[in-house]
Design a protein that fits this description.
Two copies of one chain form a homodimer. Chain A is α/β, with parallel strands linked by helices. Chain A has one domain: Carbamate kinase (3-Layer(aba) Sandwich), CATH 3.40.1160. Chain A contains eight helices and 14 strands. Chain A has helices at residues 9-12, 15-27, 41-48, 64-88, 129-137, 160-171, 204-212, 220-232, and strands at 2-7, 32-36, 55-56, 59-60, 93-96, 106-108, 120-122, 141-144, 147-149, 155-157, 177-183, 201-202, 237-242, 252-254. In chain A, the strands form four sheets. The first copy, chain A, has an eight-stranded mixed sheet, with helices on both faces. A two-stranded antiparallel ribbon of chain A has the order 3-4. In chain A, strand 9 and strand 10 (155-157) form a beta hairpin. The longest helix of chain A is centred in the N-terminal third of the chain and has 25 residues, at 64-88. Chain A starts with a strand and ends with a strand. Chain A binds chain B through residues 45, 48-49, 68, 71-77, 79-81, 83-85, 87-88, 92-97, 99-102, 131, 134, 138, 140, 147, 149, 151-155, and chain B through 45, 48-49, 68, 71-77, 79-81, 83-85, 87-88, 92-97, 99-102, 131, 134, 138, 140, 147, 149, 151-155.
Chain lengths: 257, 257
Amino acid sequence: MITVVKIGGNIINDEAALARFLDAFAQLEGPKILVHGGGRLATQLAAQLGIETTMIDGRRVTDEPTLNVVTMVYAGLTNKRIVAQLDARRCASIGLSGADASVITATRRPAIPIDFGFVGDIDAERVDTTFIQSLLDRQITPVFCSIMHNGAGQLLNCNADSVASAVAMALSATDSVRLIYCFEKQGVLRDVNDEQSVIAHISRDDFRSLKEQGIINSGMLPKIENAFKAIDNGVSSVVIKHADHLLDNIGTTLSNQ
Amino acid sequence: MITVVKIGGNIINDEAALARFLDAFAQLEGPKILVHGGGRLATQLAAQLGIETTMIDGRRVTDEPTLNVVTMVYAGLTNKRIVAQLDARRCASIGLSGADASVITATRRPAIPIDFGFVGDIDAERVDTTFIQSLLDRQITPVFCSIMHNGAGQLLNCNADSVASAVAMALSATDSVRLIYCFEKQGVLRDVNDEQSVIAHISRDDFRSLKEQGIINSGMLPKIENAFKAIDNGVSSVVIKHADHLLDNIGTTLSNQ
C-alpha cells in the first residue's frame, strides 16, 4: 500500500504545525509520497516585489513575474526546507517539480473563459510512475511541489490537490494506493464554525445531498470532486483530515458507497 | 567516461548564452552532470527585498534572509528553468540540491576568522555516488545547484565550483571522470584583457610560476586550486573554457605534468 499525502498551505505557513506534521509523516510506515501546497509566502513575496496578486475562484492568476515568484517559493524555499527537515528525521526524501525527470507534465489552461496565465492542468494519464516507483524502491520519499512543465520548456503553476490525486491515480494502476488530504481543519465539517461537526463518512450520494443543502462550501467542493475522481480511477481510499491527526483514525473518509 | 560540467553565473545571467550552452550540453554524449552557479538574480532579488548583500573574498555572506533568497533563486527558479529547458531538448534531467536524497552534505564553515553565516563546505568524502549513478543508469542527467544541507535540517549555501569538483572526485572512485568549467571567457588568459591570450595547458609547475608572476588573478585562483585538487583525487582531466565551446577542443587544460 502506497500512501500519498497532500499537506495544505495553511500548515506550511505555521512552522510549529509543519514540524509536528513532518514528525508524523516521517513515522508513517510503508512507501509514501508528499505533495505540498503553497502557503502565503508567495503572496507576501509578490507584494514585497510590487507584483499584484489576483485570485479568481481561489486560483492564482499567474503572469510571468508571478510564475517566477511561485517557482522560487514552492520549488525552491518550501520544497527544499521540507526535504532537509525530512532528511533530518531519517526520512530520505527528494524534492521534485513536474519538470524533474519530466515526471509530470501539464497543459496550459485555455485562456477562455478565464485567462489564468501560466496555469496548467495535469496530464494525469502521463505521470511517469516508473520513475516514482524507482525512488520508492530505494526507500526515497518523493516530495512534490505544484510547479509542473509542458515538456517544451515552459513551467506551469498547477493545483497541489490535483497533483496529489494524479499521482495517486497513476500509481493505482499497479499498486494499492491511499490518498490523504491534510489541512488545518478536522475534516469535512457539517458546520464550518464547529470543529466537532466532522462528517466521518461521505458517500457519493451523501456528497450530492450535502452539495444541494449548501453544507459543503466552495473551497471544499473541488477537493471532494478530486477525491471522488481518484476513487473512480482506482485509488483505494481518500481521507480528508487535520494535519495533526495524520497517524490517527480521525477525519472524513470518502467512498463510492 | 562521465562528464561533469560547471556553468558559471555570468552565463546564467544571459538568456541567449544559456540557451546556446544548453543546446550544446544536451548534445554532449555519454553520462553527464551539470552544476550551475548563481548569477546576479539573487543579488537583484535581495536588493528588491531590502536585504543588503555583503561579499567577502568573492563569497556571499549568508544570513538567514539571504539564505532564503539564494534557496529560492538557485534551487527554485534557476534550477527548474534549466531542467525544463533540458527536458525540452530531449535531455532528461533532474534538479537537485544536496538535501535531495541527501546526496551531498556540507558542514557549516566556522565563524572564525570570518563569519559567513549559513555557508557550508562540501563533505566531499560523503557524496552519495550510488544515488547519482542510479540516475545516470536511467539516462537522467542530474542538475545540481549549490544549496546543500548539513543532514540535520539546515540548508547551507556552498560554492558551485566545489560542488562540481566534489561530485567529479567522488565518481572517479569507480568511473573515469572529466571535469569542465564553463564560463564567459575563452579559458585561463595570460592577459585578462585579451581573449586571444588563452593558455592552452597548465601543469602544476606552470601554475606555481603563473601565480608567482601574478598572471593568474584572485578570481581564477580558487578555480584552479579546485581543479588540481580534483586531479589529485582521481579526476582524469580538467578543462576551463568558454560556455560556447563546450563541444570544441578549445580552452585551458590542467594536468599534473
